[in-house]
Predict the structure.
Amino acid sequence: MTGNFKHISEFKDSVENKCIHLLVEAYNQSITDKLIQLNWEENDITKQLSEYIENNPLRKGNPFIMINVEHNLSKITAKKTKGFAAKSLRIDLCFATFKSEEEYKVFFEAKNLREKDSALKRRYIDTGIDNFVTEKYPQGFLVGYLLEGAVSPTIDGINNLLKKDNREKECLYPKNHKTVKYYYESNHSELCLKHLIFDFTVL
């Protein structure tokens, strides 16, 4: 039984790594093509990245990866009335694959960031980090789209807000990652949240 759990864990890790690789390749392509504008909303950027992912031959390898933008997380149990879909909880990107008959999903939530914009950094915490911590979002990754300034002081700004909230133990700290240039982790009770930062100021 232990060997089976190990096999499942290795498969999930492999899928996660493939999804991160696809996302990083999409980011790199966006930098090469210079399509993304620094005044875009985060959904605009996510949509552009998803188009690169859709066209990436790596997505069609083994395992085959499906991608869904603005993935609906809500299970509607009450009576459905007009407008119920618009009120549903969504997460920006969902990657999915199958192993035998089991479906496995990898979730990413994206947030715009600017070094001198405290409101965006607060939003990164309140509707990014906290949505994962409270399990409003399933376990997944946060992706920060940096549109102004530098990565390090922007992360320092997020950490300063966490410290102000007496959440110093939840601060983001850098870790090495073989695929992502700017990669951070933060610990929240039993959750280790992973953060990918994509620097679009290099455009």
Observations:
- The longest helix spans residues 2-33.
